[in-house]
Structures are given as structure tokens and as C-alpha cells.
Sequence to fold (145 residues):
Amino acid sequence: MREFRTTIDIDAPAATVWRILVEFDRWSAWNSVMLNPRGRIEAGAPVDFEVAAGSRRLKIAARMLGVEEGRDLRWKGPRSKVQARLLNGEHYFTVVELGPDRTRFIHGERWNGRLAGVVLGLAGDHLVRGYEKMNRELKRHAEAQ
Fold:
């Protein structure tokens, strides 16, 4: 297993960060990395989105693993069991209240599968930069609320 984990502190209440995170239909207002998310915020529900990878758009079909209201959101993809044997990722977002107007946002992914080492060796740095960009965009949007 390989894991990429990023964090950013946000000068906004945890409830604000959480609300922005779970409003999939409004992600296009602030998020240029994970695009057009569709799905319900509940364990077991399918979730689909695109990831901006340079000039390319990668379509992702995942499944919600769990939701801890106000704190934790996770999905795993791909939904295809055949593809998942080769490469799969558990993506997570964790919201930690540091104070009434201060939040730590933890954003990462755990990777498994036969091709995980090869693919992540080639694309891992790019993924981390994308996660960090999304974090900064979330921070700007939450702090402007």
C-alpha cells in the first residue's frame, strides 16, 4: 500500500468546510481538480467525477465507503473489480476542528493493486500537487464565506 496525505489549515469553522465539501453540485465554483462530482453522500452509493490531469480529464467511477457527518468522507475506486485488482485507491477527506474559526483539512489517498507501485512512481508527484491545489482552492473558498 502507498499513501499520499496532504494537510492545510483553514481560517473558517469546521462546519463551513464540511458544508462546502459535501455540496457536490457546487464544486465547480471553487474546485479545478475534481470536476463534476455526481452521487449521494452516503455509504455504498456510487460516485462519479473527473480529475483534471493537465489537459486531460480522467473519468473516475467510485463508491462511497463511509461518511462520518461533519468529519470524514471516503470513497474507493474503481467500481470495477477487475480494474481494482490492478490499481485501486481509497480517497479521503477529514475535517478537524482546531477552534471556533480554525479547521485542519486532511486530504489523501491509499493506493493498492498490482500496478500501484509503477503508476504511482510515474504519477505520484503530480497527484500530490493536484491534492495540494484542491486544498488551497477549498481554503480560499471557505475563508471567503
